[in-house]
Amino acid sequence: MQILFIGDIFGRPGRTIVKERLPGLVKEHAIDLVVANGENAAAGFGITPTLAEELFEMGIDVLTSGNHIWDKREVITYFESADGNPYSTARRLLRPANYPPGMPGWGIYQGSKGEVPYAVLNLQGRVFMAANDDPFRVADQLLSQTSAKVVLVDMHAEATSEKISMGWYLDGRVTAVVGTHTHVPTADERVLPRGTAYITDVGMTGPYDSVIGIKKELILDRFLTNMPTRFEAATGDVRLHGIVVDCDEQSGRARTIKRIMLR
Description:
Purple Acid Phosphatase, chain A, domain 2; alpha/beta; six-stranded mixed beta sheet; single chain
């Protein structure tokens, strides 16, 4: 089974390059399952129901998110529209599972490709981020609720140490632990000893002539003056960053992990 994970889709530039390049990627790598982090799809801050549906129509099976999931309040209504309806496409948009109980949305999606069941888990770190429930213990709880062997985890976190720790903690229990959030791709992709593919950060799918997606002059002004600044998405040097994981569909163990970068 071939899994493609696309790094944080940032604004219109990110959505555009996904639309242009995803069909070719799927064909070239014989991709079976497409997952992407979409929390920055709406001009860099949040995602709307319309944009989520647009990304699903492009061929993305599951969208993960992180700390920006609530930036567009209409996403709450989108989540609520899927209550009691397991077939709603809204269930394919995830928010971190370790948010407090009772919040709208879901942190796990379970589906199948042909006769192969799979699960996607969304977790958020706690180091240098908002205080939420323990992602390690929440991962244990979610894994006890699925029988799928093919399991991909989006670990949305700031600290590299926390992401690496999650990789080791879940080694042998999930197919892949994929880091997101920092928008800077790392070069540490590997398959851990017990068969879990790992990378600290996939990187951003969006404009790299920027500071993590925002117009660089706005960020520079903020650093130089410390005055409030309205951030706007940049547009130049657009790239698609992702990883392809080849795994055994029976055991769920990863065979290889490969970084992808397209301009």
